[in-house]
Amino acid sequence: MVVHDHDVSRFADRSRELWSERTMSEVQYAQNNSFRCCGSCPLASLVAFLLTLIGTGVCCGCLYYPIQATIERVNNVFETEYIDYDWIRILRLAIIFVLAIMGSFSLILFIVGSLATGATRHQIYTGFRSRLGGRIATGFFSVVVYVLLLIWLFTMLTLVVPCIGFYILKYRCDEAFATPTTSGVTNTAPPVLCLTPGTYGIPVPKQKPDVKVCQQRFFALCALTEYTPRYVVALIGSFFVVMGLIHFLCSLVANYAYIKDGRKLCDYEDAIREEMETSKLNRG
Prior knowledge:
The protein is mostly helical. It is built from nine helices and four strands, in the order H-H-H-H-H-H-H-E-E-E-E-H-H. The protein has one domain.
């Protein structure tokens, strides 16, 4: 393919026209304070920050008390220490720790997104070292966010288990408290019902292979269904966190590409600027 000189000249003229139009639009953009503020605001990172922060707060807040009450009630009803009571304190401290870590990490990611957005990117990542540091930072945080995304996906899937379990238990309890007779009238007498842990996938201790929950202990176990809405809300909160981390990951990958190609764009603009200045001097 042969490229003629007039084709190259026409392409260069068109490039200069586009660069001039862009320069004029940037000047008008800089003069408009509202547009400048909107352009400097990292909307993608802001949405991700709010989703992650709200989701983490909702999830941890809804799990802080119910997880202790659930473990204690299950241990007391089945008269078996499924989970050691020392782990309750550890789990509650872990919930507080996760809330603090995710809140701080979301703020850091929001700041990183702000530094790589719009005109701020051209002011911060100007030299070679600053661009290299920006690429390393965005690459590192991308890996960390990806790992956190996998962890929260596992957490969200784990929270599905108690939600389904409590739904089944609630159905079983409602069935027990409202047993119709042959005449169609609800039986108000206390039913004789038992619940075997192995039937619902609950591990059965080896020292008590025939453990069962009957009558009063069964009704005490039914009281756990009052925490079902909190577990469902915690599941929704974990979904918000997953969506926020996905937004953060997309934003970091896009910012990495912007920082990487920023040098090429600056060199291209400098070359066009020098060519335009040279052409003006020749005309003068």
